[in-house]
Design goal:
There is one protein chain. Strands 4-3-2-1-5 form a five-stranded antiparallel β-sheet, with no helix packed on it. Strands 6-7-8-9-10 form a five-stranded antiparallel β-sheet. The protein has one helix and ten strands. The protein is mainly beta and 138 residues long. The chain is elongated and about 50 Å long. The longest helix is centred in the last third of the chain and has 14 residues. 10% of the residues lie in helices and 36% in strands.
């Protein structure tokens, strides 16, 4: 059974038929896609990310894996997705110890505002883990 755009939700496990049946997790979706068709952004098992149309996907009856840190296009910045929102993990103090923070990405995928989730963490990993705990509690 293929999906419609309305059926797709963030953190859903899917199979992508146009990519040989590879499995992945939906990170987000956008009304503005290729040729003015809505698209779905997927993190495939193995680490690659790509946009696909909903019609190319089938749902899987599997829980989504826990978020993982991904490389971003900016040096020193990692990111992760949760609930359809993209979060950035970075050190705003030019690498000084104890200043790692997590904030919402400001690229149209997240609500406006400063979006700081956690700050003043000792390491990137500590900031990531503190942010996941805080997001799970809210």
């Amino acid at each position: 059974m293929t999906m419609t755009f309305e059926q797709v939700a963030p953190d859903t496990r899917v199979t992508c038929h146009s990519r040989g049946g590879i499995k992945g997790t939906v990170l987000s979706k956008s009304e503005k896609g290729f040729d003015d068709r809505p698209v779905v952004f997927i993190l495939f098992d193995g680490g690659a990310c790509a946009w696909n149309w909903a019609e190319q996907l089938s749902p899987l009856d599997e829980p989504a894996p826990a978020p993982t840190l991904l490389r971003s296009g900016t040096r020193g910045v990692s990111e992760f997705w949760k609930g359809g929102l993209r979060y950035r993990v970075f050190n705003p103090a030019a690498g000084a110890r104890g200043y790692w923070q997590v904030s919402l990405a400001h690229d149209g995928t997240s609500p406006a505002g400063d979006g700081v989730v956690v700050s003043r963490c000792g390491t990137r990993k500590a900031a990531f883990e503190a942010a996941l705990a805080k997001l799970a509690a809210s």
